[in-house]
Write a structure and sequence with these properties.
This protein is of the alpha/beta class. It has twelve helices and 15 strands. A seven-stranded mixed beta sheet has the order 11-10-9-12-13-15-14, with helices on both faces. Strand 7 and strand 8 form a beta hairpin.
């Protein structure tokens, strides 16, 4: 097993060290200085922009205020006019987001071996950390024993927020208003257009379905509520597998849904195989972004290449995919249609839905033109040579 990453600094003229926690894989900072309630925001901003991390030793609420002050200073920096080329605009936007995250990630918070933040007025984060990292008394994924650690305040706030979402859940109209409870690091179905498509598409049969890359398990739950008698839901992420199992039990469909660990397909064939892969071929910068960004369209092409071999005769594959990547110039429609052909697939029909999320109407967004034109589609695919007849036109705009 690999050793845990350790971060080192000097405090009270003594060398100190702790485990470094970073969900997005950021390396530990090379230089750390102490900061507290006396630290001025301008001085802090200069240090973090230079690559020096600040280990907070003051009041927790003041640390949050400092983080907000740093964000304001980043956002006040002069912005260049977005390029007219939408692909270039996307890459510049992602680079700016990453730089912003890196700078804000330089404000660090201590965490002791019991997942307690040893700062004045700090919230109780033990439940949130246990759900994200596992029990504090247990060795971590590297096999290392528990101990003190450092993490960015930004990541800690994300843990707290994710835990609140897990408690409260996300209301899903397609489930009659019942809620899905996302775990930390598992993509939330807050944007429900793709769920509505699965709730409305005509089922090829009620016997069996595969849900590929199940995530929270929301699509498997929708299929179960629609009367599919058995669903095999797959994922590779341990957090997603645990999340899907919890949601199927909570919604009373665990008897219909089997959640299994698999890279894409389970063994066998099914009359219905459903997949909602990441929509944008770009590099993710955190675990939850893997549900949106997928370099080289690995999951999309893996699904299309293997689909025909996992369909029963006259079965259907449902590919739920946004065309945002097309509007960003990252994946042309011709590439998608060629992938259908290479996989021995034919298009039976396509159901479309337009976005309802606020960003589609935010004209200040540098990617507004692409977001406003976005359409999410459910492609009904059959294996070439089956007796199913197309009922739609896959080439319509």
């Amino acid at each position: 097993m690999n050793s845990p990453t350790v971060v080192e600094w000097t405090e009270a003229d003594e060398p100190r060290s702790a485990r470094w926690r970073s969900e997005n894989g950021s390396p530990p900072p090379r230089r750390i200085v102490l900061a507290d309630d006396r630290t001025r925001a301008d001085d802090a901003y200069t240090l973090v922009c230079e690559g020096t991390a600040l280990l907070w030793r003051g009041d927790f609420h003041n640390a949050r205020q400092l983080l907000t002050a740093l964000a304001r200073r980043i956002d006040r920096r002069p912005r260049k006019k977005p390029p007219t080329d939408v692909t270039q605009a996307f890459h510049l936007h992602r680079a700016a987001q990453n730089q912003r995250a890196r700078i804000l990630g330089m404000l660090l918070i201590p965490l002791d071996a019991s997942y307690t933040v040893p700062l004045h007025r700090a919230p109780d984060v033990r439940e949130a950390c246990t759900r994200a990292y596992g029990p504090p008394s247990a060795p971590d994924a590297t096999g290392a024993p528990p101990g003190d650690s450092l993490l960015s305040l930004r990541e800690l706030l994300a843990l707290i927020g994710a835990n609140e979402w897990r408690r409260k859940g996300v209301e899903i109209p397609a489930l009659g208003g019942d809620r899905i409870h996302p775990h930390y690091g598992v993509f939330s179905p807050a944007r429900g257009e793709y769920v509505d498509l699965v709730a409305e598409a005509p089922l090829p049969g009620p016997e069996l379905a595969f849900d590929i890359g199940t995530g929270t398990g929301v699509l498997a739950c929708v299929l179960a509520r629609r009367g599919v008698r058995r669903i095999v839901a797959t994922d590779q992420d341990p957090r997603a597998l645990a999340c899907a199992r919890e949601n199927t039990e909570r919604l009373g469909v665990a008897g219909q849904v089997e959640v299994v660990e698999a890279d894409l397909f389970p063994a066998g064939r099914a009359p219905l195989v459903v997949c909602n892969p990441p929509w944008v071929p770009a590099k993710p910068t955190s675990p939850v972004e893997r549900a949106v960004y997928d370099p080289g369209n690995r999951m999309l092409h893996g699904f299309l290449d293997g689909l025909a071999d996992h369909l029963t005769p006259d079965g259907e594959g449902w590919l739920i995919l946004s065309d945002l990547a097309e509007h960003l110039g990252l994946r042309p429609r011709a590439e998608l249609l060629d992938a259908f052909a290479r996989g021995g697939l034919t298009v039976l029909d396509r159901l479309d839905i337009t976005p309802r999320h606020p960003r589609a109407r935010d004209t200040s967004d540098p990617l507004h033109v692409a977001r406003a034109a976005e359409v999410t589609s459910l492609w009904r695919l059959g294996a070439r040579g089956s007796h199913r007849k197309p009922v739609g036109d896959e080439l319509r705009p």
